[in-house]
Structures are given as structure tokens and as C-alpha cells.
């Protein structure tokens, strides 16, 4: 979002640091399906406050050209900055980090799909790691999406961070109590 009269480039210029080494930053991602429903933005803001979120990525866009745009954006970032990419990748990372132990931990869920290969390649090319696979949580705190019939559950929403800042990640887990009538759960990462 930009302020009135502000260009997209001006809005992206960082004026003050968002985080410092002595503070905890809580960020998250949530596929809320739509923001056009009456009161949805207020619901999201309320849940954001309730879970002490400093930054929340909300997914409502189509996947068209997603990785191309993401690659372009990541290439523009400074190599000394903390790079955080968060969202619904529709990528099931699986339980076995075999061949991809450089981009994920040992605590993923589900069986890999076509989207996971794209995510792994993107992470490998950009020296990123999938934070939701680093922590040994119960499945209910890792599975981010549930099907309408309630039978199928997957870990498809992820937070990625530069590998060199991996030790700054305190936790990544699902917040199941947050509710805005979505089939996705809020994913919270603390740095």
C-alpha cells in the first residue's frame, strides 16, 4: 500500500529500520481468499493485533508469473539485508530433506508435488531456507491448509529467509485460533 500521492518506488524506500538485533519481529503470511468481503480487512487487522504481528503478508493474487516477479524482486535486494519471502506457494515440501537439505530442515510435512520442486530451486538459487521445516512441532502446528471436506491437510504456506540469518529465526508455526473464514491458517514466524 502506498500513502496518498506516493509512488510505488517511494513506498519501497526504507525510511527507518523495521527491526534491530535486540527486538523480536513477528511476521506472518495468510491466504485470506478475498479482501473484498465486508469487514474482512477489519477482521484481518484484529487478528494481526491479537497475534502481535508486526508484518503480515496477505495473499489474494493469482499465481501468474509469480516466480518471475519474485526472482526479479529478490535480485534487487541488497545482499547484506535480511531477505524474507512469505506466502502461499502451494508447495508440499515433504518430510524427507534428501537432496534439498540445504534449503529445508528435517520437519516438513506431506508428500512433495510439482510446486515443491520450483520452491526448492528458487531457494537454492537465492540461498534461502524454508523456516517452517526447522522446528519439531506437532502436525497441527505445521499444516497450513485444510480442504473443504476437512480430510486433506497440507503444509503449503511458507516463510523463507536467507540462510545466513537462519539462527535469527526463533520459531515458525501455525496459529490455528486466528479466523477470517479462510481455508488457510495464519503462519507466524518470530525473528
TrEMBL record:
Matching InterPro entries, A to Z? Endo/exonu/phosph_ase_sf (IPR036691), Endo/exonuclease/phosphatase (IPR005135), Swc5/CFDP1/2 (IPR027124)
Provide the Endonuclease/exonuclease/phosphatase domain boundaries: 66-187
UniProt superkingdom:
Eukaryota
Q: Which GO terms describe its molecular function?
A: catalytic activity
* One Pfam assignment: Exo_endo_phos_2
Matching entries from PANTHER family are given as:
BUCENTAUR RELATED, CRANIOFACIAL DEVELOPMENT PROTEIN 2-LIKE
Protein name, as recorded: Craniofacial development protein 2
Protein's organism = Elysia marginata
Amino acid at each position: 500500500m502506498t500513502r496518498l500521492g506516493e509512488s510505488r518506488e517511494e513506498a519501497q524506500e526504507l525510511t527507518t529500520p523495521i527491526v534491530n538485533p535486540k527486538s523480536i519481529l513477528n511476521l506472518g503470511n495468510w491466504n485470506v481468499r478475498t479482501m473484498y468481503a465486508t469487514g474482512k480487512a477489519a477482521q484481518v487487522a484484529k487478528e494481526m493485533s491479537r497475534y502481535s504481528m508486526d508484518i503480515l503478508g496477505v495473499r489474494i493474487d493469482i499465481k501468474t508469473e509469480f516466480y518471475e516477479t519474485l526472482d526479479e524482486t529478490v535480485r534487487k535486494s541488497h545482499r547484506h539485508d535480511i531477505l524474507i519471502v512469505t506466502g502461499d506457494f502451494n508447495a508440499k515440501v515433504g518430510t524427507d530433506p534428501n537432496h534439498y537439505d540445504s534449503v529445508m530442515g528435517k520437519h516438513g510435512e506431506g508428500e512433495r508435488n510439482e510446486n515443491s520442486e520450483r520452491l526448492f530451486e528458487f531457494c537454492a538459487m537465492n540461498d534461502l531456507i524454508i523456516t517452517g521445516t526447522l522446528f519439531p512441532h506437532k502436525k497441527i502446528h505445521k499444516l497450513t491448509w485444510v480442504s473443504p471436506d476437512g480430510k486433506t491437510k497440507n503444509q503449503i504456506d511458507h516463510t523463507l529467509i536467507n540462510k545466513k540469518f537462519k539462527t535469527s529465526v526463533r520459531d515458525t508455526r501455525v496459529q490455528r485460533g486466528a479466523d477470517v473464514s479462510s481455508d488457510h491458517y495464519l503462519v507466524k514466524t518470530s525473528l
